[in-house]
Amino acid sequence: MRTAIILTGIVVAAFNLRPGVTGLSPLLEAMGEEIRLGGGFLAVIGMLPPLLFGLCGFAAPRLIARFSAVTITLTATAMIAVGLGVRALVSDPSAFLLLSVLALAGMGIGNVVLPPIVKAYFPDRVASVSTLHVGLLQLGTFVPPLVAVPLANALSWRGSLLVWAGTAVVAVAVWIVITVLRPAPRTTVSATAVGGRELRRLLSTPRAWALMTMTGMTSFNNFILFTWLPPLLTRAGFDSAFAGAMLALVTAIPLVLGFVLPALAVRLRSAASIVIAFCLSLAAGYLGLWLAPQAAPVLWTVLLGIGISTFPLALTLITLRSRGPEASAALSGFVQGGGYLLAATGPLLFGLLVDSGPGLGAAFALVLASVVVKLAVTVPATRPGHI
């Protein structure tokens, strides 16, 4: 009973950590017919996800220490449900942004709290349960942009957004049950370690900084592609339907690999070879998209999708490289907090460079430089042993 309810909780919570992000962008044109969406709105809504994920990454470990991982997970899912549900009903851009902040804060807290829950309840099955966690997170990234427009055609754009509020309500219901039953974890989280000592130790640990930088550079490119892949393809002459399909494809590849990489990470002494290969794939995809976008757009998209698939690997490494659930909570907060703050600059800088004098050349130089930084930290970030 304990195993089944916690596994169900991990599944429904993980799925709801991305639909509020990727299910929105395909609907912005339809929304603009009812709500005035100026350039400022579009810039802010693009930066909010990684910014909130980063800030909540640093705050979440202290919240877990004070209120328990189960209570915080219930609160996070409730924030997601309320934020997504109410924002689908408003017509004021400012209110929409404020409610998005509420929902994204819940997602940011959820990002951090699930790895220590896996560590606490399944210490002897970290690989398999991490595969489930990461796979469902990637599924929640891939499905929404694929079905957002068909749902809007059937239900209106508000109805399309409300679908993801509905899935979040399911997660709230499951975590209410878990909160009432309070199944005992196999190991416990130490409030002192999570809230202070453990986090301070990570700040002086080069390997923790390396893992945070590797994760941050992955998310940096993730959010650039989420924002800019369709516009880059339409600028190259492709129609918007094809561009949307390529966005779904670039999110589908990490979904598929997310079911494989955690098990590989456990079996391999070091995951450095995987990360290096994926970095080279990312660089090749960017070069193709820049220099010959019409030659093989599907190939470039596949290479880019492989390249950003180190994110599920990084989530697994957080769990594998920590000694216990308290260390996992602190490492998860540090890595995801700092990583997402790095990522928040990606879409903005890329967009500024695209519209500047140097144009696409400077923008692609930026993302290629991020790949070099990621390569530089790969070996220490993936080194075997606990951080």
TrEMBL record:
Chaperone listed as a keyword: no
Subcellular location: Cell membrane
Spans traversing the lipid bilayer: 39-60, 67-89, 95-114, 126-149, 161-181, 208-229, 241-264, 271-292, 298-318, 330-354, 360-381
Gene3D superfamilies: MFS general substrate transporter like domains
Membrane topology reported for the UniProt record: Multi-pass membrane protein
Pfam families cross-referenced by the UniProt entry: MFS_1
InterPro entries: MFS, MFS_Cyanate_Porter, MFS_dom, MFS_trans_sf
Name of the protein this chain belongs to: MFS transporter
Keywords: Membrane, Transmembrane, Transmembrane helix
Domain of life: Bacteria
Domain Major facilitator superfamily (MFS) profile, chain residue ranges per copy: 1-386
